[in-house]
Structure prediction request, 344 residues.
Amino acid sequence: MTSPANRCGRFAKRPPKRDTDPMARWLLVLACVAHVPRAARAQPSAESSASERLAMVDPPAAREARPAPSPSTSHGVPDRGRLSSAVPLEPTPHLFVRQSRGAAQFGTAELVGLIQRAAAAVAQAHPGPRLVAGDLSRARGGRAPPHRSHQSGRDADLGLYVLDASGQPATLDRFVSLRRDGCGEAAGARYCFDVERSWALVAAMVSDPIARVQYVLIAPDLRRRLLAEGERRRAPAELLARVALVTEPHAGSHSHRSHFHVRIYCPPDDRPGCIDEPPYHAWYEGTPAPPTPAVRGMRARQRRARAREQARAAARAARHAARARPARRAPAAPPDPAAELATP
Ligand SMILES: [Zn+2]
Prediction:
């Protein structure tokens, strides 16, 4: 007879410590359910079904290249988490690391490696400027103002590559915020989107053999330029689809006009203490850890706060509409014969 562990494939590598523990049994059931191919699950989300259509499998060579588990560990979720045995993001010839007051230049080994590998890949294909890295997480994670996330070593802000006024690649030590025309000013000079290098950066990140990218937040108009560049370069359809999926607009995308906000999934050896949340793209490895009660409570509070804010916004809009509407004239009262008589 097949054991539950064998039926669950990869889960067999991590059996629960005590078979009699009800929580462990529940985790096993959850892991088995999660291990069912996504196409077979009921009501897949829009993202997961889009991911499923990709049906991408990493080449065996890439899997064999996977190094031993790293000592760095991401804990919790990116907006309520921490980091242990963090790795500092060191500058390289292709990478400038911007220092911030919060000293948020630490990440998991997987995130730091991803940034360094992607910067090197861009420099190899298009020599010249450096990638500008902004905040990652603090050495022990936790709150990293002004960010809400960036707490667990899985988020990084990476500057957009830009060209100077003469069309040459610009080497900068800062981010440049770009308007809808694709250009912006910094330190009195004008810069425009270097879509060629920026495409190369995102393409390198989503093709990374080790880190798995979940999100790349970028303003929708800049995203359109990026995808158009991929099409212009006749990038493989799978690569275009990956970039389109990770850059899909989210609530925070619109404000990302100077940098990409990149988030990676939990490295498999950091689970179950590291907690992923949807969407799960086709390249997600293994089984997500279930959220802890603390995370579930935080998410419930966030949902209630959002609902309150939406109710307040609706009330404000209703008041505004009522004020904007021309005051309806009250129907004229019939003349009061007594008043008419009293009028001199
Ligand atoms: Zn960010």
